[in-house]
Design a protein that fits this description.
Elements lengths: L2 H6 L6 H4 L7 H16 L2 E5 L1 E4 L28 H13 L4 E4 L9 H14 L4 E4 L2 H11 L3 H10 L4 E2 L9 H8 L5 H13 L3 E8 L5 H17 L5 E8 L15 H14 L5 E2 L3 H4 L1 H6 L7 E4 L6 H4 L10 H10 L3 E5 L5 E4 L1
Parallel strand pairs: 1-9, 1-10, 2-3, 3-4, 5-6, 6-7, 7-8
Antiparallel strand pairs: 10-11
Helix pairs in contact: 3-11, 4-5, 6-7, 6-9, 10-11
This protein binds ligand V47.
Length: 355
């Protein structure tokens, strides 16, 4: 029996066996993934109106793939103060943003109270703005730096206004690869544990995977299976979206020489849709894929494209064309031009409006 049939029969397969999925041609995988996607969402493509805020790039960590951190290749250190952040949130709110996505460096300068106060102030000033903030890597950093348990940090986040957690910091769970690309960052099991605790609190989050660098296909499958397992184990099932982030190569120390083809990228997205039947959404993040490939990915299992973003500092420093986000009108035009229905969603995937 071939691997797709064995998968269909519900057989438990090892990542090295499932890596053989990549040997199918793109259209075979794409058709299966597309059927699954259509069953769930028809021809809807989800997006949101959001604003990324990255309070600082001064970072205590040394991830090799990172072009954002001022302690790596970024020569321009910065640190926003509370007034600047509130002003950004105000402007975004005025322009119709429903979400602020706040991810920072592992800053040795901000205090715990400053951070929690920042969430509190944003929530107080804009109660209807969803705060998606703090990657599990930041939670882990806070826990170590301020001597608090994961539970304490997560409860304080919730108490002070954080609504959901973004999926960053997952990178690749395989410990050997992780050691090379981001030694010292949150450990894979702890990343999963932090999200599990958050989910047990009745909260939602996303999960990313950084791919297209030095990892092998098997490592991507292993990454997906660990997420699937976590989602199965927690009855609460709090992962909303899986987001494969395509590695961007500029201004960092990873020194990768070979990059995946569009076929390999689309197969990765299709395989994610096929394997992750317990994670509702697959996000083709336009900032790393480029808008056109992200739209093609909607025919290969993805159903979401992220949002307008407005300012993007992490991937754009590494070469992505996402520094100034995208205008709402352009995003909607492109989604429709690709033959899809453009559905604005909130951060938890409730539909707001069809354009
Ligand atoms: O974890 C860093 C990645 C992530 C590079 O949850 C890079 O909805 C590519 O997690 N090339 C942060 N990627 C961003 C993130 C995210 C983005 C959009 C939506 C959501 C969500 C989450 O950025 C990091 C890291 O994996 N990253 N450097 C790079 N050179």
């Amino acid at each position: 029996m071939d691997i797709l049939d064995r998968l269909e029969q519900g057989e438990e397969l090892h990542p090295s066996q499932l890596a053989k999925l990549y040997e199918y041609d793109l259209l075979t995988l794409g058709e299966i993934a597309d059927q699954k996607r259509k069953q769930l969402y028809g021809s809807k493509v989800f997006f949101n109106i959001n604003r990324h805020i990255n309070p600082s790039n001064i970072c205590a960590d040394v991830c090799k793939f990172c072009a954002f951190s001022a302690s790596r290749k970024n020569p321009n250190p910065y640190e926003m103060n509370l007034d600047e952040i509130l002003q950004i949130a105000q402007n975004a709110h005025n322009k119709g943003a429903k979400e602020v996505h706040i991810v920072s460096s592992h800053s040795p300068n901000y205090t715990y109270e400053w951070y929690m106060g920042m969430f509190q102030e944003i929530k107080k000033s804009f109660p209807d703005l969803h705060i998606k903030a703090m990657t599990a890597a930041e939670v882990d950093y806070f826990s170590r730096r301020f001597g608090k348990s994961y539970e304490e940090v997560l409860e304080d986040m919730a108490k002070n206004g954080v609504d959901s957690m973004p999926g960053g910091g997952a990178e690749i769970f395989n410990e050997e690869i992780r050691k090379i690309i981001c030694q010292g960052k949150v450990k894979s099991n702890d990343w999963l544990k932090i999200h599990s605790i958050w989910h047990k609190m009745g909260r939602y989050s996303n999960a990313t995977m950084l791919f297209g660098h030095i990892e092998q296909r098997e490592h991507r499958i292993d990454h997906m299976l660990r997420l699937k397992q976590t989602q199965t184990t927690n009855k609460e099932g709090g992962f909303n979206a899986f987001i494969p982030l395509l590695y961007q190569k500029e201004n960092n120390y990873l020194n990768v020489k070979q990059f995946p083809s569009a076929q390999e990228i689309l197969k990765t997205i299709a395989i994610a849709r096929i394997l992750l039947d317990n994670i509702p959404h697959i996000k083709a993040y336009w900032a790393t894929l480029g808008l056109n490939l992200a739209l093609v990915a909607q025919e290969f299992g993805a159903d979401d494209i992220d949002g307008t973003i407005e300012v993007e500092s992490i991937q754009s420093r590494a070469g992505a064309k996402s520094a100034s986000g995208i205008e709402l009108e352009e995003l909607i035009f492109k989604i429709k031009d690709a033959g899809f229905r453009a559905i604005e969603r909130d951060s938890l995937y409730h539909e707001i409006k069809e354009y």
